[in-house]
Amino acid sequence: MFHFFSNKRLILLLLGVILLVALISFSLRDRDNVSLPEQLIKDGVGAGQMVFSGPAHFVTGIFDNVDSLLNTYQENKYLKSRLEEFAGVQAEVTDLRSENSELKALVGKEADMRDYNPIQATVIARNPDQWEEKVIINKGSSSGVLENMAVMTAQGLIGKVTLTTPFTSTVELISTQDPNYRVSAMVIGGKKDVFGLIEGYDSERRELLLKRIDADIDIKKGQQVVSSGLGGIFPKGIIIGEITEVAIDEFGLTKLAYIKPAAEFSLLNHVVIADRVMPEVDGEDNGETAEEEAP
Amino acid sequence: MMRYLILGIGLVLFFMEPVFGLFSPLKLGGEYYYIVPRFLIMFLIFVSVYFDTKHAMYYGLFFGLLYDVFFIDIIGLYSFLYPAICVVAGYTVKTVQRNLFVATLLTLVLTALFEFVLYQFFTLISLTDVPAGTFLATRLWPTMIANSLFLFVLGWAFKSVIVGRLIEREKNPSVY
């Protein structure tokens, strides 16, 4: 064992460690764009990964189908009971929609923060070591995906795009510990919409933290939280979750709410990337704004 | 064709890991358990034990680099740890008897060590704030159980493939 540390090898080892520390610190900095070799590797590995994830999704799809077949009777009973309500709600929605568009035409408002072009994508891999909450999807900048766009499933917001290469992009889920990860959100269902920032994730409760809510404003358990669109990049109105508890933050100045995410983060398959129609501006959504600019 | 068999198996395992990663975290009785597939490093330890530590190191460097760039964007973490684990395996196996049981045990111990070092690293750069007890209960144990199942099923196959390659190399050493 001792001869392993002969002089030449010792120097090599030391050089290796120095190189390693340099590389790690280089890549830990916040880098805005990916260098060309990295892009090539990412796209190459991504292409290989798609070959493997396709059959895997097919197999899980079969299991899902069997699972839903077993629940068919229960679901059918429940759905029948909802069907009568549905007709009424449908009529109301159509009515409200036409009224909304008429009113918009009346005041001459064309663009809406709610509008977005959906880009459909498939999750091809999840970081297997699961320390960072990242998934990789099969659409990249060639399909119009840009950094910081919102990513969601049918149930709600799951994260945002952090890196793009021509054919893949990396999505950081909202359940991340990253302190620079912010989403501007609002609480709906009260008398007035209440604005705050989603900042941080409680990994023991598995709930998101909504911070910077004015201490005078009253919010209650059970209210829904959606994205506000004021962060500059996300469209308005993507469901994030539901308030489970309201508390005072550590300085006693603002309120803090725990939010149970609406979307399920495990077994992700199809996701939608929201490309907002309104022009995008810099704001909290890209995690670069200084503290004092927050509401 | 046979020359690239080990590299081929490595590639397949590399692509299998994230696919199995999609199933995690597993929810059992209200508690979430993280299962991290570590097929590739286990295979590389086997290569290091039965074939040649130098080859295992090169493969480790190659796959580690791919892993770093594609998944975690911290270059130098896996590309250092994979070869390092292979070196440790190569040096340990020189002092003990080389059989399948010892190789399996060594692989599991080193994989647990690998997990633990990664946990320490991510705590250091404050990407995670999981306490050590939670890490043991919800990550290390489930991961080790799942990976040992994988190894018990496929360990002998790894061994026979690698030993097959070794015999072939000894027959015509001129290729290397």
From TrEMBL, chain A:
Keywords: Cell shape
Signal peptide interval: none
GO cellular-component term (any): plasma membrane
Pfam family, one: MreC
Rod shape-determining protein MreC beta-barrel core domain boundaries: 123-274
Gene3D superfamilies: Rod shape-determining protein MreC, domain 1 (2.40.10.340), Rod shape-determining protein MreC, domain 2 (2.40.10.350), Single helix bin (1.20.5.490)
One GO term of the biological process aspect: regulation of cell shape
Tree of life domain: Bacteria
Family: Belongs to the MreC family.
NCBIfam families: mreC
Protein's job: Involved in formation and maintenance of cell shape.
Full protein name: Cell shape-determining protein MreC
Automatic annotation (TrEMBL), chain B:
This protein's UniProt keywords: Cell membrane, Cell shape, Membrane, Transmembrane, Transmembrane helix
Transmembrane segments: 31-51, 100-119, 140-158
Biological processes per GO annotation: regulation of cell shape
InterPro entries referenced in this protein's UniProt entry, alphabetically: Cell_shape_determining_MreD
Keyword Cell membrane: yes
GO cellular component: plasma membrane
Compartment list: Cell membrane
Topology of the protein relative to the lipid bilayer: Multi-pass membrane protein
Keyword ATP-binding: no
Major location (coarse): membrane
Family: Belongs to the MreD family.
This protein's name: Rod shape-determining protein MreD
Record organism: Planococcus koreensis
